[in-house]
Write a structure and sequence with these properties.
Adenylosuccinate Synthetase, Chain A, domain 3; Adenylosuccinate Synthetase, subunit A, domain 2; nine-stranded mixed β-sheet; globular
């Protein structure tokens, strides 16, 4: 009964889509357990690039069961666009949506932008996809769930009350004009419901059956540890639990069922949005890494902030997620530099800081202390592919030294090394779904 969780260890955009897609080929069931249209992931399959926001990364493999868990917030319009994209490519995935997942409505988009503007310096730099306001309604026990969306009577009743309250907030508090009437929203969203109703199924029963049958289950996280609503750098994060604990609450799988927690580590730091990034680079090196890696947000298109790898963040991620293995990405992107740096700890004034501060104001006062490493040559696409085929020992010696130092310092072994966007550009040191003897 192998159950594996894949989480981001940094600020999101670590390459989880590639890693989850790789593992999905070995899994029977792939479950997305948090987030919504704010979390983009890119998958390259047979030379074709797919950019998804909602659907689990197992959709490109025939025969896989793909579940969208109760921890997600669903934008029906965007989800249908992704399903249509798949159908246009001749792919008809087996998708099931939890009836307990919440629905993002037009009010949430408007409020997301209005609230961000009013927050000023405390704005998180959201994707404006309505995620935070939708999760806020969920916590306030006021949201619309998928089970209600596909029930016209229940949806009409909930929408009537919500419309009156949201209009007062949008117009009365923020002084904004909201052009959609209750009837217009009802008509639009009942059409979405008609198209999605066949996908809404009791995912808890599907999961229970898969566990009983000892199916291989892959739980797919969104974004990264430092964006988690509880364990991230609050308030500069997201509104859901992106850490491994969220896999349990967002899917309905108990913690004792989980065998492996794989942390995806980009070999440098990147993030979209505001908030402190201690190792951020503002020079030509940062610009070079951004350009070479195409570091622009999948969802927003915004240029990502680039920095050296931060061991403080990784140690913290290993702790709160209970990591059992590391999957390194972007080894090819970081090539071609003479020297690399890794942040080993922070200093605040004259004081050494050995653990990640909970307060963003404290983190902003910290300065990174670095250890230098020799860089490695860029082998080109064919060279990196050759390394992937030959195995870990064929990597340039400086690259191995860099990865092994990180693994040792974090106290977690290396499971995968990604050398490019394709599935074949991957070195496997441990296969989490291999049958144990």
């Amino acid at each position: 009964m192998p159950v594996t969780v894949v989480v981001g260890t940094q600020w999101g955009d670590e390459g989880k889509g590639k890693i989850v897609d790789f593992y999905a080929s070995r899994a029977d069931v792939v479950i997305r357990y948090c987030g919504g249209a704010n979390a983009g992931h890119t998958i390259v399959s047979k030379g074709r690039k797919f950019k998804f926001h909602h659907v689990p990364s197992g959709v490109l493999y025939p025969g896989k069961i793909n579940l969208m868990g109760n921890g997600m917030v669903i934008d029906p319009k965007k989800l249908l666009e992704e399903i249509d994209q798949l159908h246009a490519a001749g792919i008809h995935p087996n998708i099931a949506i939890s009836p307990r997942a919440h629905v993002v409505l037009p009010y949430h988009f408007v409020l997301d932008g209005a609230e961000e503007e009013k927050k000023g310096s405390l704005a998180a730099g959201t994707t404006k996809r309505g995620i935070g306001p939708c999760y806020a309604d969920k916590a306030a026990r006021f949201g619309v769930r998928m089970s209600e969306l596909i029930d016209p009577s229940a949806f009409r009743s909930k929408l009537h009350t919500m419309h009156q309250i949201k209009m007062r907030i949008i117009e009365g508090v923020y002084g904004m004009r909201f052009s959609l009437s209750e009837d217009e929203i009802y008509s639009e969203y009942t059409d979405y419901a008609r198209r999605l109703s066949g996908y809404v199924k009791d995912t808890s029963e599907i999961i229970s059956s898969a566990l009983s049958s000892k199916k291989k289950i892959l739980l797919e996280g969104a974004q990264g540890t430092m964006l988690d609503i509880d364990h991230g750098m609050y308030p500069f994060g997201t509104s859901s639990n992106t850490t491994a604990g969220g896999a349990c609450t967002g899917s309905g799988i108990g913690p004792t069922a989980i065998d492996e927690v794989v942390g995806v580590v980009k070999v440098y730091t990147s993030r979209v949005g505001t908030g402190p990034v201690p190792t951020e680079l503002f020079d030509s090196i940062g610009n070079s890494i951004r350009d070479k890696g195409g570091e622009y947000g999948t969802t927003t298109g915004r240029p990502r902030r680039i920095g050296w790898l931060d061991l403080m963040t990784l140690r913290y991620a290993a702790q709160v997620n209970g990591l059992t293995g590391l999957a390194f990405t972007r080894v090819d992107t970081l090539s071609g530099l003479d020297k690399l740096k890794v942040c080993t700890h922070y200093v605040c004034g004259a004081k050494k800081v050995s653990s990640t501060p909970a307060s963003h104001t404290e983190l902003q006062k910290c300065r990174p202390v670095y250890k230098e490493f020799a860089g490695w040559k860029d082998l080109g696409d064919e060279g990196w592919l050759s390394c992937a085929k030959k195995g870990y020992k064929s990597l340039p010696a400086p690259a191995r030294a860099y990865l092994e130092y990180i693994s040792k310092e974090v106290g977690v072994p290396i499971y995968l090394v990604s050398l490019g966007p394709g599935r074949e550009d991957t070195i496997v040191l441990k296969d989490v779904f291999r049958k144990k003897s």
